[in-house]
Amino acid sequence: MIEMKIRKIGNSLGAVFPREALDRLKLREGERVFLTETPDGYRITPYDPEFERQMQLAEEGMAAYRNTLRALAK
């Protein structure tokens, strides 16, 4: 377990990640992370380009079959 402290950053609040956590997550400055809720609490994960690609394909499919999906939803 790694303890983090919430700090004031300008007009906002933020958490500063210790070097150990950054190394384990393989994060660098400017990269995005996602805070997701799980049954056990919250999970911080780095940006996943594969998930982004899958979502883009899903959005393209939904756009292509928009009328069919709308009819099925009735």
TrEMBL record:
InterPro entries in the record: Doc_partner, SpoVT-AbrB_dom, SpoVT-AbrB_sf
Molecular functions per Gene Ontology: DNA binding
Protein name per UniProt: Addiction module antidote
UniProt cross-references to SMART domains, sorted A to Z: SpoVT_AbrB (SM00966)
Alphabetized SUPFAM superfamilies for the sequence: AbrB/MazE/MraZ-like
Record domain SpoVT-AbrB: where: 7-52
Pfam family, one: MazE_antitoxin
